Inverse folding.
């Protein structure tokens, strides 16, 4: 009976593992399907260290088994003492040199890659007009949302990072409240976002792999930061250079507009009274970052998620506005929107969904 129970337990554990691990390997989310130079190097390092560790496990187990089988005390041979090898120079050199070689094989590529990932020298390269050649994004992590600022283009956006493929994108990373960590599993990372210093790194988004992922990668907060840490997601739209340039042009020229639809117009009024003190609706946001208390909503109607986690439709949007605490416990938007009537909520949602910068 007991044995059967144990078997069932094992079976359950393995089925759970299968279920959990079946989530791995998705091209938009997994470190096991690297989609850029950094992720590929990190993956290669993982494979290298796994191979070496498996080799060590097999070698040690083999030696152990040989010792147990060959040198066990045998019937009629109880008095026999096998040849003693204590102090053997050959053996001691062998088991010192092999680990040193293995460590070198691990250390050299790891250290080399670490320095390569941290090399952001080219970030400051200027062209002959004195403009920066590289694309730089300032990442700012907040409880529980992400801001992406393109300082050279004077464009601010929230929750969805947009990048060109097949070129290095440089990130300057920090946090405005507590420590978070910036991580795009399929493309690389992770890097701590701190409150007292700016960390820098670069990533490259492979164009072919981006296509496999429908040009949309998932980003995560990788540092336990509060009750909604696991919900602190962002999305990355990795676009071919021409499409990215078009997007950037649209963002740069986007202006606040009065919507034609009277419902959306009414929503805009409600927005101005209730939301505009924290949220902005133009990508150009001249306020200092301390004043940018909530995600920029300029292209809200074009996003793939509401609040980073909910499906992008009016119903979920209204659910979110009605009770943000229910969906992201501890978030800063909590608690001021309860007084809106159903009609006002409808109007507000219509307005927010109409916020688009691309035609
Ligand atoms: Cu932010 Cu975890």
């Amino acid at each position: 009976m007991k044995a059967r129970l144990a078997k069932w337990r094992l079976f359950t554990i393995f089925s759970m593992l299968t279920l959990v691990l079946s989530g791995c390997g998705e091209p938009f989310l997994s470190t096991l399907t690297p989609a850029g130079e950094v992720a590929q190097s990190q993956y290669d390092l993982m494979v290298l260290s796994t191979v070496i560790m498996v080799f060590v496990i097999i070698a040690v187990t083999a030696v152990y088994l040989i010792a147990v089988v060959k040198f066990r005390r045998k019937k009629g041979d109880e008095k026999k003492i096998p040849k003693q090898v204590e102090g053997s120079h050959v053996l001691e050199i062998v088991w010192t040199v092999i680990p040193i070689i293995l460590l070198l094989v691990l250390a050299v590529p790891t250290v080399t890659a670490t320095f390569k990932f941290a090399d952001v020298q080219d970030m400051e390269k200027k062209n002959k007009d004195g403009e920066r050649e590289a694309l730089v994004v300032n990442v700012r992590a907040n409880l529980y949302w992400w801001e992406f600022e393109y300082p050279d283009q004077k464009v601010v956006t929230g929750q969805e990072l947009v990048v060109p493929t097949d070129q290095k994108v440089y990130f300057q990373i920090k946090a405005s409240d507590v420590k978070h960590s910036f991580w795009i599993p399929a493309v690389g990372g992770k890097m701590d976002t701190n409150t007292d210093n700016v960390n820098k790194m670069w990533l490259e988004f492979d164009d072919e792999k981006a296509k496999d992922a429908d040009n949309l990668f998932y980003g995560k907060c990788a540092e336990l930061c509060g009750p909604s840490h696991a919900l602190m997601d962002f999305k990355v739209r990795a676009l071919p250079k021409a499409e990215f340039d078009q997007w950037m042009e649209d963002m740069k020229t986007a202006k606040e507009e009065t919507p034609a639809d009277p419902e959306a117009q009414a929503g805009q009024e409600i927005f101005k009274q209730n939301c505009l003190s924290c949220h902005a609706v133009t990508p150009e946001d001249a306020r200092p970052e301390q004043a940018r208390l909530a995600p920029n909503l300029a292209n809200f109607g074009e996003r793939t998620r509401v609040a980073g986690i909910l499906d992008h439709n009016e119903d979920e949007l209204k659910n979110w506005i009605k009770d943000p605490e229910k969906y992201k416990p501890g978030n800063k938007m909590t608690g001021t929107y309860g007084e809106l009537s159903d009609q006002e909520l409808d109007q507000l949602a219509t307005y927010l969904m109409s916020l688009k910068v691309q035609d």
